[in-house]
Description:
407 residues; alpha/beta; 30% helix; globular; 11 helices; eight-stranded parallel beta barrel; Lyase, Ornithine Decarboxylase, Chain A, domain 1; single chain; nine-stranded mixed β-sheet
Amino acid sequence: MGTxxxxxxxxxxxxxxxxxxxxxxxxxxxxxxxxxxxxxxAVLRVMRSEGLGLDVVSPGERVLxxxxxxxxxxxxxxxxxxxxxxxxxxxxxxxxxxIGERSRLEAFGQAFPGARVCLRLNPKVxxxxxxxxxxxxxxxxxxxxxxxxASARAVAEAHDxxxxxxxxxxxxxIRDVAPFEQAVRVLLNAAEAFPGLEFVNVxxxxxIPYRPDQEPLEADRFQRAVGAPLRHFLEAxxxxxxxxxxEPGRFLVAEAGVLLVRVNTLKRASGRVFAGTDSxxxxxxxxxxxxxxxxxxxxxxxxxxxxxxxxVGNVCEGGDVxxxxxxxxxxxxxxxxxxxxxxxxxMAMASTYNLRPLPAEVMIRPDGRLDLxxxxxxxxxxxxxxxxxxxxxxxxxPTAPASPAAY
Length: 407
């Protein structure tokens, strides 16, 4: 299948779905998958077969969900800073909009009086594996601050909007239950002001153990911290028919994916050994952007002695590093390496920086079969796209103006 390639394991995806059901088994829960973590259609089809809905955050993700056969009622649209046209297209598609800005709520109400809507709150709980993924602190662009929820409710009432859900998402890669508990209590306190609610969405953000010394989030701890206040709320509102929504992404897909790369260069310099590969930061940005840790495993020499390597990429950046001074089974030129836990925010964040084509993607089925999930596009397609405008202009009459749609 060649390299670089992202490979996803279907059995592991399904196992994570079952783990999520275990975390929420004693609640009236509805489970969504956060598409932004990995939008590959093969992954989304597994989620649909497991009974999950989708949390989408852009018009593109919404249209992808529609084309894959997800019903509008299975989709929550949580984009921020939408244009009027994007809001109209989403509303006309039948999905439920989740709005976190008062000005956008006002515009939505003016355009669609009497419509159903979900409100995204900012509970001011700071959590996340890196400052870039903290989405609910005082500086965050996301959500209506909890102390302003009354004014947001007034906007909704002025346009007869039916607030059917309240939502929050505090951050990503969180392995401590305390922030979840704190944020849930803020959310439930806000829910008291909305007697017609159909659901409360506690968001996603559940982390995974990337490092060998880290442990996965324990189900009983999560159930005590998050499940207990949710159950108490139900007991206090027994006739409400309320459900609780969860929308993890990383938790479901990260450990199910690896990035396969081939070593083409061994270089010794300044007391280090650099293992150069045919991939790079354009294919897996997390180490460069977040300083994120990903395990590296030598599939070609699994029994080899551990030696320290700087495993690096082929992009023209000093930060193009998968791992620094990482113990890996002895590496030889030509060896196949697996960069582990790369199923979330890997290909989803990939770019063609340096005009390097994107990797292929495959799904490993339970019977061992490999199904192509996205083909590897040749470099010529990148060049053709860059030259398209020039070549189109060259074939157009000198007096014919370009269409406004071209810009």
